[in-house]
Structures are given as structure tokens and as C-alpha cells.
């Protein structure tokens, strides 16, 4: 069986593609959460940041971005839900 040789550039590109894929999968969490919370714009920004950040830096950016954007979607969904309603009377 022959050995496989790849150049340094090819190795870096494969590493970036793999990390972008991981970032994309992680970005699906805030995207779907944003879709169901009617915060799709924030979800789309989240998937872009996690994918591009994952490709460039790796999961060091993807995981915190997933957590931060999921929190932002939840916070904005809660604010949007409470806007326009009078306070609850006891």
C-alpha cells in the first residue's frame, strides 16, 4: 500500500474545511432556535459567524459564538414577547 502525501497548503485547507463543518453544525443550534423564536436574522448571523470563525480559528471561536448567539436569541425573543403587552395585574 502506498503512502499518501499532501502538501502543507492542502493540510491547512482540509483543516479549515473540517473546522468550518464543525462550526456550521454548531451554528445550527442558534439558527434553529432563532427560527422558532422569530429571530431569524440573528440566527443567520450566528451561523455565519460560527462557520467563518470555525474555518479561520477553529472551535475556539465556534463554541463560544454558539453559546453567545443562543443567549442573544433567547434574550431578544423574551423581550419581543413582552413588548406591547400591559403588565400582568395581580
Question: How would you describe this protein?
Answer:
By secondary structure, this protein is mostly helical. It has one domain (8-79). It is 78% helix and 0% strand. Helix 1 runs antiparallel to helix 2 (40-56), helix 1 (8-36) packs parallel to helix 3 (59-82) and helix 2 (40-56) packs antiparallel against helix 3. It is rod-shaped.
What oligomeric assembly is this protein in?
A: single chain
Largest sheet report: none
* Beta-strand content estimate: under 5%
Report the order of strands and helices: HHH
Distance between the termini: 78 Å
Please indicate the count of domains: 1
Q: Overall mean pLDDT score?
A: 89
Main attributes of the structure:
single chain; 90 residues; 0% strand
What would a concise description of this structure say?
The protein is mostly helical. 78% of the residues lie in helices and 0% in strands.
Provide the fold topology.
Layout: H1 8-36, H2 40-56, H3 59-82
Helix pairs in contact: 1-2, 1-3, 2-3
